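Morning!

This is the sequence you dropped in the shared folder:
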Amino acid sequence: MSTQLHSMAEAASERVASLHRMLDAWDGWCSIALLVWILTVCKEFNAILAIMRAVLLLPRHGTSVSYSQLQGELAIESISRARICMVFAMQGFRLVIAITMLYYGILFLAYTTSVSDLLLNTVALEFVIGIDEVLFETLAPVRVRHLFRNVDG
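The structure's back. Tokens below.
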């Protein structure tokens, strides 16, 4: 009887050790998924700050735009205070959305229970944050896309 009890205890001990290894692996995958999500949202923060910095560096006389035939570039030479306020309002709105997505994305990933669901949820969050760029690249007219690529502020 004691041999049987001893083998049952060893089997239980092996199962507990296996469970600990699985949890350690889960922590690693969860950490990687959270890191990827946080870095993705930080990329959005950097884009917001770059636009705000670029607008602040422009002279404030009224909006003036020029087009260079040689280089094929559209240059924003100055911007009015009203347009600066509009740009800042839009970037503030983007910032609120990015912070909200960061918070709820972290919760979404933290409460995921399996590795396969974690991978799927990470890809889904990346899809949600990048859908606007995909829609712009596929649905905007070629002239508008060309205009946006060639703006020099």
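Headline: Residues 38 and 111 are 16 Å apart (CA to CA).

More detail when I'm at my desk.
O.
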